[in-house]
Amino acid sequence: MAKKSKGNRQQIILECTEHKASGMPGTSRYVTQKNKKNTPARIELKKYNPVLRKVTIHREIK
Description:
Layout: E1 9-16, H1 17-22, E2 29-35, E3 44-49, E4 54-61
């Protein structure tokens, strides 16, 4: 069997921007994938933050 090529999909971590700025303990992070060929820039998605109990903007971290 031939070895599978690495591909363009990359695992990324999304971190809440509001939670980081508020100074509250803990973090809200999500793990997802993106195609680095189609979207080379960092992405922002609206996700639920269980600590703040609302939907906030989560930005990709490196």
